[in-house]
Amino acid sequence: MQKESSFNESLLHFDRDHIWHPYTSLTNPLPTYPIVSAQGVRLRLANGKELIDGMSSWWTAIHGYNVPELNLAAKDQLEKMAHVMFGGITHEPAIRLCQKLAEITPNGLEKVFLADSGSVSVEVAMKMAIQYQHAKGQSQKNKFMTIRNGYHGDTTGAMSVCDPEGGMHHLFSEFLPKHFFVDQPKKRFEESYEEKELANLEQFFRLNADKCAAFILEPIVQGAGGMWFYSPDFLQKIRKLCDEHDMLLIADEIATGFGRTGKLFACEHAGVTPDIMCVGKALTGGYMTLAATLTKQHVAETICNGEAGVFMHGPTFMGNPLACAIANKSLELLLNSGWLERVKAIERQLKKELIPIANSLSVKDVRVLGAIGVVEMKEPIDVPKAQKFFVEKGVWIRPFRNLIYIMPPYIIDEKDLNQTTSAISSFIISSHLCLLGMY
């Protein structure tokens, strides 16, 4: 155990009184836990306690923390330049990153737009689809189709294609553009659809496709909307219908990309190539914010031959050299790491240790895919209570709504993963005893 940090208590008071954390209140703030350093899969608190990170800092830190190769890539790039504008200027880190993304993503996604964050990459994708249809003389196709219970980010365009009722953005429903939502796919990942079961999708497209530029979805795994893993058959059907109705298919791979589901990209489970793909989160291994939107040549050419003559977007920090250099090294580490074997090992252990929890009185469902484990409770979780419980058990897990989920760094070993799943089991047992009035 490392020496305790002299974390100034007044900083915590300021944090509590003045700083808005994600989805928290300033009038009834949740406890925050001060982290002073991180190494491997462990986060160290100011009091010296170490926590095994089960969240990969929201899907990003796939290599763990304080990675020597990524540290060196950052240092080397800092000695050259941390940032330079991307308008009229280019640089090697960005070029090499775009080369690698075009190489490893599904075939045909060869035009790359670099963005600041996942939400921005979704905004970029939506704007691409609108400009594409406008350039084809179909300006009436200015809406989007998507799936209920989806989540695509917190910026305005992204919010508009999140679930308008059950999602996190229903308070903004009167402000946001109105789009078309099809029911969430009901078949689980390992189940198959019969063609007749997807007839409702054909009707949905017949009624709405003439008004829609694209269908946007999270392929195979719906993340913050409910951590649902659905059948690849559904994605295949959407691809087919988009082709039939002159709509683009946008795949939001921000959470699922770079191996998390057991494929490098989740679209590969269905053998589908989208017209536009968004990637982010794990792109830099959790070191810096960076995302990208990739599209096919015919989409890019159509946009650039349209009225504007250019794609109408340009973030200030687009193509940041420091972020691109780290992303290049992160992708190199991933592709040379035996990531698939690691993810499969995590999946096997998660299934072995989490699936039995499904028998608990308080549990509704347990789901595992790749390096993702989800325990869906029957009732909403008291998040501060659960957070305190997990910290006491030496793990960092951040539940939301009625979901306890983990997506650990790929480098986690069997012992640390077992401590993480055991903490979940212990929490479930305590919840079970509460239901029985024994705790």
Describe this protein's structure.
This protein has 439 residues and is an alpha/beta fold. The chain folds into 2 domains: 9-63 and 338-435, Aspartate Aminotransferase, domain 1, CATH 3.90.1150; 71-335, Type I PLP-dependent aspartate aminotransferase-like (Major domain) (Aspartate Aminotransferase, domain 2), CATH 3.40.640. The chain is built from 13 helices and 16 strands. It has helices at 9-18, 56-59, 68-78, 92-104, 118-135, 156-160, 199-208, 232-244, 297-304, 321-335, 339-354, 383-392, 414-435; strands at residues 35-39, 42-45, 50-53, 109-115, 143-147, 180-182, 212-217, 221-222, 228-229, 248-252, 276-279, 291-296, 363-369, 372-377, 395-396, 403-406. It has a 7-stranded mixed beta sheet with strand order 4-12-11-10-7-5-6, with helices on both faces. α4 (92-104) packs parallel to α10 (321-335) and α11 (339-354) runs parallel beside α13 (414-435). The radius of gyration is 22 Å and the shape is globular. It starts with 8 loop residues before the first helix and ends with a helix.
